[in-house]
## 1
Amino acid sequence: MANHAPDQNIYYVPHGSKWPLVGSIGLFLLVGGFANLMNGNRTLGLPMTLAGVAIMLVMLYGWFGNVITESVRGFYNRQVGTSFRMGMIWFIFSEVMFFAAFFGALFYARMLSVPWLGGEGDGVATNAFLWQGFEPAWPSNGPQSIGGEFGLIPAWSVPLLNTLILLTSGVTLTIAHHALKAGNRAQLLIWLGVTVLLGCVFLFYQAEEYIHAYRDLNLTLGSGVYGSTFFMLTGFHGLHVTLGTIMLAVIWFRCLKGHFTKDDHFGFEAVAWYWHFVDVVWLALFLFVYVL
Amino acid sequence: MATHAAHHDDHDHKPGFVDRWFFGTNHKDIGTLYLLFSLLMFFIGGSMALIIRAELFIPGMQIVNPEFFNQMTTVHALVMIFGAVMPAFVGLGNWMIPLMIGAPDMALPRMNNWSFWILPFAFLMLLSTLFMDGGGPAGGWTLYPPLSLQGGNSMPFVIFAIHMMGISSIMGAINIIATILNLRAPGMDLLKMPVFVWTWLITAFLLIAVMPVLAGAVTMLLTDKFFLTSFFNAAGGGDPVMYQHIFWFFGHPEVYIMILPAFGVVSEIIPTFARKPLFGYQAMVYATASIAFLSFIVWAHHMFTVGMPLGGELFFMYATMLIAIPTGVKVFNWVSTMWKGSMTFETPMLFALGFVVMFTIGGFSGLMLAIVPADFQYHDTYFVVAHFHYVLVTGAVFSIMAAAYYWLPKWTGVMYSETLGKWHFWLSTFFVNLLFFPQHFLGLAGMPRRIPDYNIAFSDFNMWSSIGGFGFGLSQLLFAWIVIKSARGHGPRATAQVWEGAKGLEWTVPSPAPHHTFTTPPVIDDRVLAHGDVTH
Amino acid sequence: NPEPWQLNMSPGVTETSRMVYDIHMLILWICVVIGVLVFGAMGYAILKFRKSKGAVPAKWSHNTTAEIIWTVIPVLILVGMAWPATNTLIHMADTDDAELTVKITGYQWLWRYEYVGTDVNFVSKLDRDSDRTRMLGSGLNPADVRTGDQNTYLLNVDNPLVLPTGTKVRFVITANDVIHAWWVPVLGWKQDAIPGFINEAWTRIDTPGTYRGQCAELCGKDHGFMPIVVEAVPREQFDAWLAQKDAEAKAAATAANVPATGDALAVVQ
Ligand code: HEA
Ligand code: HEA
Ligand code: CUA
Ligand SMILES: [Cu+2]
């Protein structure tokens, strides 16, 4: 039983690994340092955070490195692949629920709290006693105009462009996937590379948009509940695009090194799923944050 | 087929201490770590509860100041929920699910180790806030803004600790789902799985669905405090009540996360000691699923007094009441399993029976709380405290103890002392009722919760309650003693089957269970299967 | 007002509170009856079907008829509970036709009462006796804090809220800093006080008397020390009281030349 052949019928129990513990320490330092920074304790916070980031990076590199090596050596069988796939699917589902919390906040603010403050529905007394004269409308930064007057980013400008970019990137990624399945490595590298580039372009425009919002429109995180929901939703989305882009780039390098086979390329698929998830979230964002 | 333990030339060779306990991937070892961690947290959280009970022993402020009292209340709850009860069930799941479905290990063993190792760090962070300037969190475990935003330096630490617990739970849940769906031995159909496995499968879905929502909610607290957002500030168009909606969207499913695996445990134990198959196996499965589904649409029953529109109050009242139906089905099925059985009353069975009775009492008070006009009176009083300690302590915690006694021989290979176990049960049951039953009276008489001091009229029952609290706490030392004794291998050797009426795969492997089990998938013989009715 | 050894909710002093009390008793008894049946069956099984008595386990493991019965009957019971609950709730939600409106604002850690339409506006906080006694290690005995023959430790205030009996009074409730909750048990409800929002509630008190309650939402360190006292007096007496207070407030306002409804904290200090 002690042979290392990739027998498809053998259940693979990996050997121990130090990375989980290293990851826990890294995470602890990272968030602990961040918390110190928030409390204004830079002398402790900064080194802790940086150490945390460094350890996390080493951990990710090491852990994924292990898994990739094992995978390339053919230790994994279909069952392990299925476990990985399930893991990824449910991880993405948890991410969906994370965004759901912020979408929930957006809907609540638009459909309940702002109208109530403005005296609609059950808010008659609220408006009459506390916020007389406040007219409910969306976008709103509330009866005290927290953050002051602000301008909006029109849906049909950069956001539309970004929508098209992300949609296109979904297509190019699928082309790359087909190329992989067809064994066409050159096509794979090209289209995957295009996808990475599109991700970067998206992020570039997103950054431009933020700069524009802060500099010219006075639209900030502090612009009442509109600014809060706007930046938290687009911001967390942007963070996920960043992660997705990095993941795509890693995959690109792996393809370059000849990883993945026609019918076994879980790493590729996982990243692709993630990218499509980021895509779908953007569509919801475009609709509910920008258009409506 | 065989297990491929890479780099292990001998598959039952045990790695060295550090490799085994810090870098390990073995589901049994990780399960053990979870269980020990949970026991430690139970003692820490319990000690805080005892500080609360000591201050409330007689009227007047004697021991702690109000700020510290509130910190104790808050951290007690967080430690008990996220540190004691949830990890205990994850530990039981880790140990038993692979054994029950004939899998060699969890599906993602390294991630499993990570899920565990995040926890000690998360609690280190949470507990360290108690020693900071301004102390730990004092806004209640629900962290309602604006109060929670007034917290001192502790706030970001607490929130990040919660994020870490969330990450740990989500990874643990993913692992359990992948294990159950992907690693069952051939022939172990979904509807042949032990009920404990079923309840954990459904619980895992709940976890993945709601832990991220909690993460989102506390993230918004953080940005409201540090990054100028106005989610929970009316002046900016937000609403403090919005936090409560998001929190309870997590919070209500969370309480079922803590009780569904308990239902599973009890559904394993009662048939064993009644020597009769579980009554209505499929109904049990469907009831579990219904409870899980309903748990998503009842959250606002924690918020009946925040001033929701009438329609909302009615909707959430009706939806909440509905949960009594599937839960009732479970209770009736347990009683029917006992009916015409051939019962014996070893310690696990005693705890399981205690669970059925006292959980039902807690369920009844839950149902009373669901009735909006009555909840206007009960809300935020000791009646609520009594309710949730009945479902949590005599519910979840009792089931964990039942499970511990039930499976200890399998884990350690030795029988614990029945005499001591029975003492533990009877002492616990007596004191826990002395502890929590009078709290119903206090609540009805008008004592609010989360207060460090009270009027003379409330003194007698508070005194009883505190005596019960200390008695219950001391009784748990007995439990710790029994566990340690077994873990060190003292006691008569246990057979593989351990209990005369026990059925299921976990009883086909030797006691103690070898380090690696089911390296070849077992042949499933329906007759040895757990107590599910496999005929339909 | 809580009594030593009190076991049950008080029926209260309003029609609403009695409705709530009736529902409470109804659901309590239903639960007790179901409990007796379920635990009775279980107890019987435990006594009868034990191995030591030679019981032989049966083989069956389901029974569709029984399962349907114990699904349907609870549904009916629940409907029976939901019905009066719904009616009471609708009754409680109707704040129309009130003759007097009082605005209640929660602060850390006191209450402000404003009689809407008058200049009467004052704050109400824990009385000095209780306050002294409740200090950590004060050495004072809570049993010594008394008003008349009642122990009022932590349940007494400096300025009670005065309300007329037999009158529908509407409350508009809010808070200034964090969430509080206004609760006088004998009125039969509590209502959260949310900063930035108004919640409405109402009462019509039947009998004159002094009714005590407490803040019922954790609001910081002194959450346990912000009681509520309602002084219910006959209508004429109330009208006289209000008129006098109103006059005093107007006089004070002209004297000090500041609006009487000025910044709350100014009045506190
Ligand atoms: C394991 C945890 C757990 C469980 C299982 C439950 C179960 C239930 N809970 Fe509980 N609950 C909590 C933990 C739990 N709760 C906690 C922690 C809080 C407080 C949080 C905080 O504020 O800090 C709380 C608070 C809480 C409230 C808010 C109270 C308030 O703050 O004002 C309400 C209101 O509806 C409620 C209702 C219920 C109901 C209806 C059930 C039902 O699931 C119960 C169903 C069971 C039965 C009914 C018994 C068995 C049934 C039968 C025998 C059938 C026949 C019966 C009838 C037809 C009546 N709970
Ligand atoms: C799973 C969850 C869980 C568990 C197991 C417990 C267990 C206990 N709880 Fe907990 N409790 C909560 C969840 C839980 N609680 C929650 C969610 C709240 C609400 C918080 C909030 O309002 O925000 C709460 C609030 C709460 C209050 C109300 C506080 C307030 O409103 O101000 C009280 C008061 O009596 C209390 C008491 C106890 C006691 C005595 C135990 C006992 O069962 C504990 C027994 C265990 C031990 C005692 C430890 C073991 C023994 C030793 C350490 C040995 C040493 C012993 C001696 C020296 C005697 N709890
Ligand atoms: Cu004010 Cu509690
Ligand atoms: Cu709930």
## 2
Amino acid sequence: MRNGKWISAYAAGAYLFLHLPLLVLAVFSFNASKFTVWEGFSLQWYGQIFENSQLLESTWNSLLIALASTMLATSIGTLCAYGIWKRKAPVLSGSLYLSLVTPEIVTGISLLALFQWSFRFLGLQLGMHTVILAHVAFCLAYVVITVLARLRTFDAALEEAALDLGATPWQAFRLVTLPAILPGVIAAALLAFTVSIDDYVITSLVAGVDSETLPMVVYQMARRGVSPVVNAISTLIVLGLGVLILISERLQR
Amino acid sequence: MHRLRAWFLAPARLVNLVCFVLPLCIVLAYSLLSRGVYGGVELPWTFDNYRRLFDPLYAGIFLRSLWIAGLSTALCLVLGSPLAWFTARADRKRRNLYLNLVMIPFWTSFLVRTYAWMFLLRDTGLINTALMSVGLISEPLPLLYNNGAVMLGLVYGYLPFLVLPLYTSLEKIDPSMLEAASDLGAKPSTAFWTVVVPMAKPGMRAGSILVFISCIGTYLTPDLLGGSKTIMIGNVVQNQFTAARDWPFGAACSLVLMGLVMLFLRSDEL
Amino acid sequence: MAAILELRGVSKHYPAHRAVHEVSLEVETGAFYSILGPSGCGKTTTLRLIAGFEDPDHGEILLDGRPLQNIPPFERPVNTVFQRYALFPHLTVQGNVEFGLKRRGVDHRAKVAEALEMVHLTGKEQRMPAQLSGGEQQRVALARSLVLEPRVLLLDEPLSALDPALRKSVRAELKTLQRRTGITFVFITHDQEEALSLSDRIAVMNKGEVEQIGSPQDIYLRPATPFVATFLGDVNWIDAATTLGVRPEATSIGRQAPEVAAARVESGRVRNSVFLGHCFHVETETSRGRIVAEAAHAYTPGEAVFVWWNAADEMRFHA
């Protein structure tokens, strides 16, 4: 069975549909003109990124948030996946799955409601910490699913062998299971990182004045009108995340 | 051993409880309260927020959201099925490449991908500028801020949700099955309808549900690509919690949206 | 000799089936003890109960007279060779073999070398499991357990993953290893030939219960139940109620009636002869039903023949 001429042509068209908008965006990030008319090659918009303190600051925030929430979500999620793998936890799995399909806007406003409500007693304000907490919450399900997929290919007899040879359950996990599923854990971390650094909807609702993230700034700039700087920063985001996702995909094989 | 497992699950249980279950409970409570004078919520308990959903204005938005989501799903099915078939029939070695071609843009920044369409469709965007410069049109075409643009954005954004599960189903069809069908006297078209379609059904259903629930709950796409007349449920929710400061009504809208998502998820099991 | 391992009325029931029911057995110190049975008979569950991966619902497991209840697997002086070896893929041969010693905090260099020498793997310390042949992997699994000098070594069908050509030689090595180390082996298998040739004692299990315990000869020649008789070899049933049987190799055939006085004789007709290499199995139809006899040459179908056997070779069962 091979693909015929027509379907191959169709597939080529579909891939073009999926990639061309991003490609055009990237091409015009190197445009010398401010308008959508090609006037020659220039790196000026990339230069402007580094002069824009709002962009730089929000990038820094995004990286900090993504790093912190990735580390937390990956640790919590890996332990959780292991627990579920040992014996099913239908309520927790169901709840995590539901959190994955919940519309972002609903997740966002419900977290906002939680923070506003609890801060009346705690005397806290929206900020970095609320953003990180929100990100840990929505990255968790991604990590659990990815690590669980890896655990399903892991031979449970290896762990029993470790126990049999005198390892405590914790040692068996640390010395045998964890090394075996490590590629899956790293893949999950990369996934969590991309999901976190890319989120706009939830973040914009629970962010405070000191925790503006890169997607929030990109959003504002995009709304304001055409600026090749947005093209430039978008190109960098797509490239960066593309590389991370590619590595993550590789590790999951 | 059971004790270790309990410790392992505890942090995830805590995060899920505090950051998912509890917030939804608070939203549920808010949806049954009255709007506060300065925003926020106050007593008494009431069903008014749910009653307001039947207001023609909001009922219209709900219906339009369902309609846009449904049509986008149908479009994804039509456009994505051949792509899934192509990927499943490809050389074993190339399948991963073809899948990655679909999945990589999917994982990279939904915001940027939506912005890319703004860049293309705006009055001063690439398509209008190009058409005007070759003299085909003198006024920019109204490509952005309408239902079409929103659906384009949704199809573009969620097409991979359809391709991946459908591919998984189609991949299970062994070419020898089709050979067996033709060996047993089935014409290619008969083989397609009696072998391929039944086997593809679970993937089509799973993919359609994923696309539909993503579309129905979308916020960013209509926000950026739609106009004032193309707002969807997600935008109503966002608006009630920010500009309109009517949290109880926003909460009711979110719960109805959540209910819709769960309803369509369940339809997979039926 | 005293029993090193004892199971007293051990049961393990799952919602769907009784995996192990009222199993009692005693393993003597230094014995090569086999648990034999078809797949799903509960032998693997029995092993997992002894190793501590499962807890019995009822009954007691005693090691050196002390109950093992509530002792987790990592504290039991019992080690297992797993069916597919379960070698740690990320550790070298050395790493696998010293894994258990490290958990005990024992000085391990010399012991690891000694164990590897015992299984003829000296020089392969730095190999990864994936770089080893099936037979070598199995020897690493053995060394990894033996180096801990367990009171009892449990072996879960350790030969089933090997290709048939290798199986017989490994079988001999296993027996030698057991004699040299003097460690008590509890060997799980579904292969009656393996069990008969290796064991000092065999427990035959069926549907979660022990059907018979005895020496290989006992089990083969004096099976306690029709199940044991048929599981260990072919049987000619002399009556419909399966209370009387005789093995084909104890059944003779001839064109004339035998002159031996003690023989039980039946007359019948040949149905067909099957060539088995070392002999023929001649299938006959008699008034007692179908009887198969072993013969040095073939018989023509339809021929009138006599089949006979000694009363001493009859296997009797209670209905």
